[in-house]
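Q: Protein A?
A:
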Amino acid sequence: MATQIEVPPFDQHNQTLVRNTHPADWQNPTPTERYNLLVIGGGSAGLVAATGAAGLGAKVALVEKHLLGGDCLHAGCVPSKTILRSAKVVGDIRHAAELGVQVGQVEVDFPAIMARMRRIRSEISHHDSAERFRGLGIDLYLGEGQFTGANTFVVDGRTITFHKAVIATGARAAALPIPGLPETGYITNEGIFELTQLPQRLAIIGAGPIGLEMAQAFARFGSQVTVFDIAPHMGGLRDAEGLALIRQALEADGIRLLLESQTQKVERVGADKVLTFTHAGQTQTLAVDEILLAAGRRPNIEGLNLEAAGIATTKKGLTVNDYLQTTNPHIYGAGDVAIPAQFTHTADATARIVLQNALFFGRKKYSQLIIPWVVYTDPEIAHVGLFDYEAEAQGTAVDTFTTRLQETDRGRADSEEGFAKIYVQRGTSKILGATIIARHAGEMISEITTAMITGAGIGKLSQTIHPYPTQAEMIKKTADAWNRTRLTPTVAKLFRTLLRWRRG
């Protein structure tokens, strides 16, 4: 029988969430025959693998020790984007005067924002419910388990025998060896969505996607936010122009950015949590009410007894080949526990690779994926493929074509800043990658991703008719810039000669 799990605050919304994703009265099935596929982990990758295999007629066992839905539902995409929607409204109102609209004082009801998030999350949890998967014919086992051999796994005293298996146990926030941090206390991406009161002073360690998104949201809600990172860049960007745009946007919201800083220690002084850090050659202190740790991820591989199944690991997770096989060729890895691109959409994509390779003798490769990603700040950062410096490091000459948002009529009408940069292999039309910074960059990047997947060169983007006026015209204008490079002096001279002849 499943154990009772509580998610703070255990209100009606979180009670519904838990009732759907880990019901306390759940009775695990009794294995009667070998499974075609054992799926370990009920997050994004595991659920795609389990439902996909069951839909194809496979006999499937799914094991989850905590809550079905994984990080995306409980402590990632769903709750973060829900509160970011509220934060975007606050940003719009505060900038309304620039557009000729006068609005009074903005009042943020943080408990109401978080209650709305919990309600929406509980509603979405129906899609990841235990009953739904049972209805799909999947044998769901709730509880901790471990391998006992190359093709056996035990959970709740029941031995599951399988032909193929996939480990999709995900990852969690990494701990940092900062003296005093564990004793002082901190929250991660899990704890931040359990808050019911707004911290007046918030320190965020880590300027990656989670750190920046939460920094902007909480700053707009009214927190005094300081972001620390040891690196000189943030949000996955090294592009100087892009970094300047994002820094300008975050600082406009009152965020203090301390890049290239080193946190020396953390201690509790009365009710305060005090960070001692070095920045710009000086040692300083900062007192806050809460610390969000958002610097890196670590794989969830403990307690699985992977050695019994002959599965090798590293600090980064499972050791897998390009077909996502572990060192036990009958067992695969998918999602955050196995790959460096830790996004929900890549968890989905790797699960599909596993289904083809494990069940149907496929030879799909992870390296063949073209993976876009987005940081949902305002404006958003979207990227796909290689950056220019990555391509050059591989020995590929690159031409970068850029259009700024203010060069489009819609960008000027919206009074927004941003750009589209497309990286093209020199002398060809092949798109190597692209970066877009704009308010809806995440909605735009798929056009370039589709072009890359289909092998369409940048010239096809120039031929694509874009509605006027839209911010996505940046993409067409950027492709037009490439197109103009084809008009070499020699070609231009030939055109002039031809047209002069036709006039005569």
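Q: Protein B?
A:
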Amino acid sequence: MRGHLHDFLLFGRRDRRKTLLLLLLLLLVGLGFHYLPRLLSGNEAEEQQLMEVARQEHEAFEARLQAQAEADRVQEELFPFDPNRADSLTLHRLGLPPWMVRNLLRYRSKGGRFRRPDDFRKLYGLTDELYVCLWLYMRIAVPSEQASSAAELPSDTVPMLYRPDTTARYPARPEKYPAGTLVQLNEADTAELQRIPGIGPFLARRIVSYRQQLGGYYGIDQLREIDIDSRPLHDWLQVDTTRIRRLYINRETLNGFMRHPYLHYHQARALLEYRRRHGPIRHLQELSLLEEFTPADLERLSHYLSLDAE
């Protein structure tokens, strides 16, 4: 060891510098081989986690659209039912969401009973629109304690089922607007949308739900994205684009970007990476430099991205 050190000291200054530099490079290479796999695996784990978040967001969005489509289908398949006897599958087919079905079954398991349609209306979370659809189909059986006394009555007077009186003042379907009426698409609630011919409670909820995801509509034809024929609605709807809720492109987070229906995971990552490398985005046309965005993407996103905080 002393001999090697003695030989090293006998080197010229330039040779010693070269030797030290070579040793430093070897040290850096060794450290790189040791830590680089860990760094790469850490980045890969983070990317996998973000991909999983994106996948879950996408699946949740698809599930909402599928649930809305199922609700539209269910509307055409209403049938008589007894809320005191219907099982979970029957209640689901009638359009009740799973959590509401569980609450209803729990209420019945504790001895609760629906004696009139008005009792069913008090079910937590039940909308007026769905109640209007269901109340005419309710067939509430006479309780057993009343059945024995009813047996002593003439058969033609025994009330075997409670059938709603259609002359009673139960909630009526919304009266439709006359021709020439214009409804503001970015402000109307479900009740107002139902007054447009051709729009029922399920389509109205679908329109409002997608509006909330987008932040507002910039055109009526966007309704085609949720499988609604927009052509007959041009005579009834108008769009105020000042009502659109925009994303602040220089401050939004990854999850914030991905919550928008027009942005997917790779586009959101590309936006963040561009901001990291080049600083704040000063013009939306800068996004055309990114291969993740097509001209069609930029056109429709231009209605939702903002350079300035609002």
